[in-house]
Amino acid sequence: MFANVLIVCHANVCRSPAAEMLFKARQAAASSIAFHSAGIRAMNGQRMDPLMRRLLAERGVASGPHHSRRLDRQLVRSADLVLVSERAQVSEVEALDPASRGKVFPLGKWEDVCDVADPHGGEESAYRESLVLIEHLVMGWLKKIC
Predict the structure, then answer these.
(1) pLDDT of 84-95, one tens digit each?
(2) Helix %, strand %, coil % of the chain (to 5)
(3) Where along the chain do its domains lie?
(4) Which residues are catalytic?
(5) Which CATH superfamily is domain 4-145 in?
């Protein structure tokens, strides 16, 4: 069973916090899994992208206070499962902590989706597309881990 799941993207202001909030909102009430997020190249303390925050609210998902944090070895080691937004990020996480091999997977693993496109700074339609995909992938993972 998983107690601590870490979701990773590039800057931890858009995709990974959206996935974190969706996991928290959609997990079964009896589930005791803790969900967290971080970014491989994040600048600590940045707020969540306001457009992604608004789109989550439209889906009934409270985003709460979020401040980005940079991925480090301790975060990886404390996680039972690490989910990344892009397939290439698997090797980046494993390079940071070689002991993480076997617990790092793409968010799209079960759907043969290689990458969740980063909509940050793009058109609203790109954010919507990304969020729909993230929610679909989150629901797939929840069926497997809860």
Answers:
(1) 999 999 999 999
(2) 45, 15, 40
(3) 4-145
(4) 9, 15, 118
(5) Response regulator (3.40.50.2300)
